[in-house]
Structure formats: C-alpha cells, structure tokens
Amino acid sequence: MSGGCTIRTAMPADLDALLALCDEHARYERAESLTIDGDRRARLSALLFGQRPRLQAWIAEEAGDALGYASASAEVSTWAAREYLHLDCLYLREQHRGRGIGAALLRTAIAFARARGYGRLQWQTPEWNLDAARFYLRSGAQESLKRRYALDLAPDPTPIDAVG
Questions:
Q1: 54/46 Cα distance (integer angstroms)
Q2: Interior CA angle at 12 toward 39 and 86, to 5°?
Q3: Smallest Cα–Cα separation from 90: which of 45, 147, 162, 141?
Q4: Which of 21, 29, 126, 155 lies 20 to 30 Å (CA to CA) from residue 71?
Q5: How many CB atoms lie within 10 A of CB 59?
Q6: Measured CA distances, 117 to 3, 85, 147, 154 (Å)
Q7: What's CA 67's distance to the chain center, in Å?
Q8: How far, in Å, CA of 31 to CA of 145, rounded?
Q9: Which stretch of DSSP H or E encloses residue 79?
C-alpha cells in the first residue's frame, strides 16, 4: 500500500483498464503516431500473459479504480554483456500525483529487477517532462543524455543502403 492504494501485478482482467491508461499516457506524452487497432488488446495480452510473456506490468489501484501503471521488459546491453530491465512506462493519472504512488510503482519495478538479478534499470522520459525528470533524479537515478529514434517498419521496408 502507498498513498492509500495498492500496487499489484497486472492480471488478465486488467487489460481494458491498462489499455485506457496506455491511451492516456500516450496523449500525455504527446505521442504523434499512436495507432489504436483491433489487435492491440490481443497483442498486449500475449505480451503480458502468453506462453512466453515478454512484458511485466503493475497496476496502482484504489477502491477498484486503476490510478496508474508501470511496465517493464528485459533487454540486453551488448557493452555490459548482461541483461537489464527497461522500464517502458510509468504513468499516474494527474489527480493522483504527489501521493507517493509513482515512487511505489518505481520501487516495485526496482524490487522486481533485483529479484531477477538484473544489474540495472533503465528508462526515458520526454525532454519537456521536467516534473518526471525531477522525480527520477530524486529517486537516485542518473541522467544519461541520448537521442532516441524510432523507425516504423512497413511490409516492404526501404533497404538501409537506399537511405541517405
């Protein structure tokens, strides 16, 4: 319990609430290319609860209402030659911020990473999100400045040698 709410592992019954939180999170982060299609629910379910789950998610809830979530997946650092946990999302509805719930979600992800032997937790936040940056710095995290790129892969991708 934190801030009067419970942090728990997401369950299949949470899919609709989790998708709604994801949509809010994407709008909050000004995502320009959010594609919501009919297969998204099935894909998220398979990633979280399928035979080979690749994603872990936690829900912050109070009186049966989802207030926020965090999600993470194992990734690999070639440089360190080891796995780390990538915190893909940490989102809390605005009216519930400042109650310690975000910190509880972060602590949950940290505990999960430690329990599985990951040596590091990594994440990013948009450059304009100064409140999140302050929150993460208060947690003891160190900022690492890099640019992040995304390339949507169409059915017939442009060959890399044709670029530039």
A1: 9
A2: 80
A3: 141
A4: 155
A5: 22
A6: 28, 10, 28, 36
A7: 15
A8: 20
A9: none
The C-alpha atoms of residue 76 and residue 80 are separated, in whole angstroms, by: 8
Predicted pLDDT at 136:
72
Nearest CA among 119, 126, 111 for reference residue 76: 119
Residues 116 and 107: their CA atoms lie apart, in Å, by 14
The neighbour count for residue 146, using CB atoms within 10 Å, is 6
Segment 28-52 shows an average pLDDT of 85
The closest of 118, 10, 22, 108 to 74, measured between CA atoms, is: 118
Whether the CA torsion 141, 145, 146, 152 is positive or negative: it is positive
Question: What would the two tokens of residue 29 be?
Answer: 């982060």
Alpha-carbon dihedral 26, 32, 38, 42, rounded to 10 degrees: -50
H or E element: which one contains 139?
none
Question: CA-CA distance, 76 to 73, in Å (whole number)?
Answer: 10
Rounded Cα distance, 21 and 69, in Å: 7
Three-state SS sequence of 90-122: EEECHHHCCCCHHHHHHHHHHHHHHHCCCCCEE
In the structure encoding, which two tokens stand for residue 156, read together? 């017939």
Going by pLDDT thresholds of 50, 70 and 90, the confidence category of residue 53 is very high
Q: What's the predicted TM-score (pTM) here?
A: 0.81
